[in-house]
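Z., the sequence and structure:
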Amino acid sequence: MRWLMVTTLSGLLLFSLTGCWNKAELVEYAFVQAVSLDLSDKGNIKLTTLFYKPSGSSALTKGTGTKSSFTIKTEGKNVFDAIRDVTIHLGRKAKWDHMRAILVSDEVLKAHDLGVILDFFRRDHEPRPTNLLLVTKGNAGEYLQLEPFIEYTLGQQLRSMDEGSSRFAAKSMNQNILKVMIQMKSETGIAEIPYLYLNTKRGSVPNIAGVVVIKKQKMVDIIPPEELKAFLLLKHQFKGGIILTSCEELGGDSDHTLQEAFEISQGSTNVSTSLKNNAVIVNIKAKLVGAAGELSCSTINTAKEELAYKTRLSNQIKNEILTLIHHLQSKKLDALGIGNMIYAKNPRLWQSWKQDWGDRFTDVQFNIQVDVTVTNSGMSGGKPLDK
């Protein structure tokens, strides 16, 4: 009896199992690794799509010299129109859920709103909102013709470059479509996107360094790599990097003495706003923890020498923050999100300031305090090797 009940229940459960009513074979799709958007001579969207080329074993692909990817170029009245034309060349439908990066040329962002360009990638169900977004200097499609250095596809190579530049060098920032769209919907409406360009001095090597500033959906400025360390600190996105200090203050010959380096392992910043007589005051308190990475003129064997060393480091960071602030204030660009902080505290006041906030931002007063903690002097002690 018990056996009969088990058999009956098992048979009934079979009817509740789902079937492959909407199955699709792999041979019907081509998997996208990266895509670039440019403008054609007619003003249309020129799309270059980088596809992954499956060949059984990726290691075998490298060994035989067979390329693991290929590109197809299409053109259309908009992004979706250009995407659909991929099938007339490839015979397969493009699959977007494995895409790693989206490249948009600076010329596109000067002619079209960023929201219009990205609309398909946020509206369609396949592209992930966490896809890396890059702005390129010049033609974006040309970057997809480059060979990856260590990864098997250029899409993954670009993603690794951005993560490394942000995490270890503090010269880029991790941005994706979702983050950029949230920034553009903020009260200030300013967003930042990593910048991709070719370093012609080093043999046309691709670099991801610096960020493009977007205001009112258009590209308006570039924050250079040397200012990005301070920018990441103030945006609470600093993960690691180094501080360079000159030996000039210690009487060294700046033309013949290499600069010193301090490696930051931890960095945190507290940014707060206050109002005084209808003027905005921003207080910045940065705390950095790290170790001496390279010494050429400093000695830090005693407490007095360590204090002098920390003072030099603090002054250097403070100067870098001031340089960034002066840059943004001269362009009337509140890329730091000070306006968003005012809105969170006093929405009614912000509504009366919003229209001319760019002009008001130039008059904002910044008070900066930097605290540096030196954990150790490395393996070679507290003085340069030549001393």
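The domain at 226-387 is CATH 3.30.300.210 (GMP Synthetase; Chain A, domain 3). The chain has two domains: 28-223, 226-387.

Let me know what you think.
H.
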